[in-house]
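Why run this: before we spend reagent on co-expression, it is cheaper to look at a predicted model of the complex and decide which construct boundaries make sense. The entries below are exactly what would go into the expression plan.
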Amino acid sequence: LSSCSRPNHSAAHTAHVPIAMTLDKKENTDVEMADASALTDENKKKDAQKTPVKDVFKLADLEHQLGRIEKGVAETDLRYLWFVLRKNYTIRRELKPSLLAQCLEKRLPESEFRATLLGWFSQIPDPVDVEAADSPDVAAPAAADAPVEMEQGADESAESESVKSADIPEVHVYLQLLAVIFLVDSKLYAEACECSTHLVKSLSQWKRRTISPFAARVYFYYSRAHELVGALESIRPNLLAALQTATLRCEEGLRGTLMTLLLRNYLHYDLYDEAHRFVENTDIDHSKLPSSQDARFLYYTGRIAATQLRYDEASRNLSQAIRKAPQGRAHGFRLQVIKWATVVELLMGETPERSTFRSGPLEAYFKLAKSVRIGDVAAFEQVKAQYRESFRVDRTFMLVNRLHQTVIKTGLRNINRSYSRISLAEIAQKLSLDENAVSVAFIVAKAIRDGVIDGVIDHEGQYLQSKELVDVYQTTAPQKTFDAKVRICLEIHNDAVKAMRFSDDLLSQPVVGSDSDAEEPISILDEDDDEDDL
Amino acid sequence: LRLLLRLLLRLLLRLCLLSRIMASFAEVKTLVNQFEATIQSGDCNAAKTQLVQLKLALIPFHFLSPSSLEGPDRAQHFHAARTVLELAALLSLKMEDVDSFNRHVAQVKTYYFSESKFKDAPPSPRKYLILGLNLLRLLAHQQFSEFHTELQLISIENLDKPEILHSLKLERSMVEGNYIQVFNAQHQVPEPSFTYFMNILMDTTRNEIASCLEVAYKTLALSAAQQMLSIESTDEFSAFVSSRAHWKVCGDHIEFVPKVVKSAAVVPSMLTITQNLHYAKELERIV
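The model came back. Tokens follow.
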């Protein structure tokens, strides 16, 4: 499927460090997750024969995450919460639904909704066939083996305080968020919709700052679940209201996510006009967004600009989106953006580089580019008819239709360059146009007026005479191209410096307390910093 | 006592209004049928007054906000309101009032967007006519970006409908420069209501052709020019020629005075200054 993939993004520990965007069902050698897999690997080595222990360890690990959340809330330190969110990637892959159900049962307050939720979870089959889960007291020795030894104290105290700490809404929100993710993964879309709607309603009650890292994720999955069910339109007023509240409370992260979700909502229904007005009327500084949201935002604005014939802006936005998309992950998203970017480039009259067409799914676009480059109308029509379905799925069909004009333009340009004088009838024949002399004359005249070709038509002789080629260095064209490139370089330089400036702040901050506990998140964050900078 | 009297008065007024507004839906239906009949008979002024009445009558049925329509009869209400707006758009076109046409089309479009919720309402026979007319209006006013935005809203399967196809083909011919097709299309309109915009389009096209001719030709015989511009009467033609700024008539052909071309030796000082200032600012900037 070439449609936009659903990335599971882990949050940035601050707004400036690039976020990792991950794609499900693709096992990648994530350097970032090395720390998490290192923990499980070590554990596996220690208890190689007992696979169930790993799962139980995960339950303890989940408890450990909740402990972190509580600590973060207690100290009002958002970094713990961001760190917890980053673990989502592993948890999604390795945690068994039954274990999550256990945890939900233990932690969530008794309510009708909890019962329904647990009912849904019983429907989800466990991925690995395992004998009855061992009792939680096996968690203690297993946990002792793991390097999280120092956290054991926190674990036990967390468990003993479970009754007290169950009141923290962040824990509820986090667990319910995991529940929604699992429901979506198991394709129980209608249930996921209900669960996420319930979660969004409960979110609106809480006015705490510490909820905000989770809030963005909650809205993302809320929108995604509804999209999978096909009910996106119904949630639009809710998203707009949430955006309003987020703006009032100056929650930039949430605002960014909501804006991209709303844009996706509008573009899903092809409401380009409304999307354009939305972008114009909301002031969002997209350079301050985390780069995964920024990539999405640029892609959507690029699409809007392309539909409204503003090709320069479109190609700028789309190429920036490609740059900001994470390397090595989120392939679906990149493919989609590349498709749009190539069509826009073709519409502007430039040929995209061959290297962009390495992969199979872009074959249709490769053939399209070939036919446009040559200026062969017949081949173009054939390609269009052949790949009509795939263009429709990619939503680029309308743009491809517009390419007809570009093919003729390119054809005319090639003819003009190769012939100093050519009769109009021959032009018509080469471009397979209507043979009527007047219509060919019109087409050529319009091309001359638009600056595509340079020449003069002689009416009596019915021929096109090209003017002599002007040395391009005598015009201002090189200066303009040079200026454009310099501006791009300066922009990249500024962005890079801004991104770098952030880590200096982080390193110079005093270490919070002297516990090894507190040190651990910071040191892990630093490690990841280095790996990201690679 | 006075307060009581006032309250009573208010209640009475409210009851009166309600009884007036609470015209049953059957009355609305008869009004709609009357309206259709008047339009068909061609009496525009009468139709206009009837339209105003109809709009007032439709207010209790959530006029202009189809998403809030509820109740068992909502499909009928939806259908009635939609028909009224479509007919109103066609009426305003007949009366050559482009502003009210725009307004009515925008209002009808909200109904078209909500169509997925009202599947039991019969599909409108005039939907693609209205959409096609709207597209043609955008073309006639040379608003290509809005044209394409509107086009996106029509799903691909429906692009083959004759009204839409007509506008699509016109757009393609205009962009390519195939103006002969544009002229021919004038005689091939799918519906007589298209003629108003087609006339505007013809004028626009003529201006386009004239500007193309200026650049592409050095001289052009008068007869050929007349043929290309597709103006039949010679008076119109001479009026047109004299209205164009750079055309000089010499005997039996027109000479196109070329526009002054800036010599390449002139340095574009403003451009260079702006660019260099920008570079200097960026280089010195402490980010």
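Residues 195-216 of chain B form the longest helix (22 residues). DSSP finds 13 helices and three strands in chain B. Bring this page to Monday's planning discussion.
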